[in-house]
Amino acid sequence: DVKVTQSSRYLVKRTGEKVFLECVQDMDHENMFWYRQDPGLGLRLIYFSYDVKMKEKGDIPEGYSVSREKKERFSLILESASTNQTSMYLCASSSLQGKGGYEQYFGPGTRLTVT
Amino acid sequence: KNEVEQSPQNLTAQEGEFITINCSYSVGISALHWLQQHPGGGIVSLFMLSSGKKKHGRLIATINIQEKHSSLHITASHPRDSAVYICAVSYYNTDKLIFGTGTRLQVFP
């Protein structure tokens, strides 16, 4: 079974703090994704990585950065957390579409509250 | 306008009812995905289809490529089916998914 794990289920941080969200997958997937999920807006892509050290901005990258130093790990960084970044953050991974698999496997999510 | 539209946004049903959730999209796709998210839980993939129909237990997914429309059916619904159901599409030139905003289903005993 594919497993995608996220470092925390719940996180509370103060405005201005630097926040790290970690995601690890164990299926040797090339692609990894970070989304945020807000009521009424659905899942929105923050950043996407298709290989180690490679990244691509998604729909809402402002205020976020990412790091992918190893294939299995994809980190989302909030440089200076703000209250409008309070949300559910979901990580996902998938094989390359060219390998016949573009089904995404999701982690359990991290509910981040910024006060 | 979202590229992927789902209806209804919210749905309540009595246990045993037949349920249909609809999804429409605006341009050609390589595949359509149905996902399920339980309250407080992660998201799991139910189906990935590019044509025709797929069935898994009480769940059936259909797609009409010409009409750019898909439906997810649940037969003999049960309270444990209560969840948010999300439609997403993938395109040929990218590994990214485009998501609908989800349908919240509540099934009462």
Write a brief structural summary.
Chain A is mainly β and 115 residues long. Helices cover 0% and strands 56% of the residues of chain A.
Distance between the termini of chain B: 36 Å
Low-confidence stretches of chain B: none
- Separation, N- and C-terminal Cα atoms of chain A: 37 Å
Largest sheet of chain A: 7 strands, mixed
What does this structure look like?
The complex is a heterodimer of chains A (115) and B (109). Chain A is 0% helix and 56% strand. Chain A is mainly β. In chain A, strand 7 and strand 8 form a beta hairpin. Chain B has 109 residues and is mainly β. Chain B is 0% helix and 59% strand. In chain B, strands 2, 4, 5, 9, 10 and 11 form a 6-stranded mixed beta sheet that branches. Chain B has a 5-stranded antiparallel beta sheet with strand order 1-3-8-7-6, with no helix packed on it. Chain B is globular. The mean pLDDT of chain B is 92. At the A-B interface, strand 5, strand 9 and strand 10 of A face strand 4, strand 5 and strand 9 of B.
Notable traits:
heterodimer; A: 115 residues; mainly beta; globular; B: 109 residues
Write the layout of secondary structure elements.
The complex is a heterodimer of chains A (115) and B (109).
Chain A: E1 4-6, E2 10-13, E3 19-25, E4 31-38, E5 42-51, E6 54-57, E7 64-70, E8 73-78, E9 87-94, E10 105-106, E11 110-114
Parallel strand pairs in A: 2-11
Antiparallel strand pairs in A: 1-3, 3-8, 4-5, 4-9, 5-6, 7-8, 9-10, 9-11
Chain B: E1 4-7, E2 10-14, E3 19-25, E4 31-37, E5 43-49, E6 52-56, E7 59-64, E8 69-74, E9 83-90, E10 97-99, E11 103-108
